[in-house]
Design a protein that fits this description.
With 155 residues, this protein is mainly α. It contains 7 helices and no strands.
């Protein structure tokens, strides 16, 4: 969200326009995508491309569109906390998910592999025009979330 609102082509006008045109914020990915798959809503905007691509593979009549003007992609981090009680097992897990076999499993779910030697089953990092994103402070993040809630009429 912060990547979109901070970009000169989008800004808060994007979300204000979406709200004016009846956009809803239904919740988690499935709550957002299911009404589209069921025909109750015409579109979904957000981080459900990998789920939509999997649904299309199973025969659903859905298309994923990345804006020509650019979009944001969110990395999915994996980490080991310093307080981990099983740091050795956690390291083995991280090593596995970053291995060729682990990243192939990631690609099979239509997520983007972190490794460039693993072929994605979808448009990849180099195929999608990305908007420049700047890191934000915790204070800026909270202010952005608060304004989003206000614009979208959320509590």
């Amino acid at each position: 969200m912060s990547g979109l609102v901070s970009h000169k082509s989008y800004g808060w006008k994007l979300f204000e326009g979406l709200k004016t045109n009846g956009a809803l914020v239904p919740g988690a990915n499935a709550q957002a995508l299911n009404p589209v798959l069921q025909g109750a809503r015409a579109a979904v905007m957000g981080a459900v491309d990998y789920i939509a691509l999997g649904a299309r593979e199973k025969g659903e009549g859905i298309e994923v569109i990345y804006p020509a003007s650019g979009t944001v992609l969110e990395a999915r981090p994996a980490m080991i906390l310093q307080s981990s009680k099983n740091a050795d097992n956690a390291k083995r897990f991280i090593d596995y998910i970053l291995s060729q076999e682990g990243q192939a499993l990631v690609a099979d779910t239509y997520l983007l592999p972190a490794r460039t030697d693993i072929k994605a089953k979808r448009a990849g990092w180099a195929d999608i025009k990305l908007l420049d994103q700047q890191a934000s402070s915790e204070q800026e993040r909270l202010a952005t979330l608060q304004r989003f809630k206000s614009v979208m009429g959320l509590k």
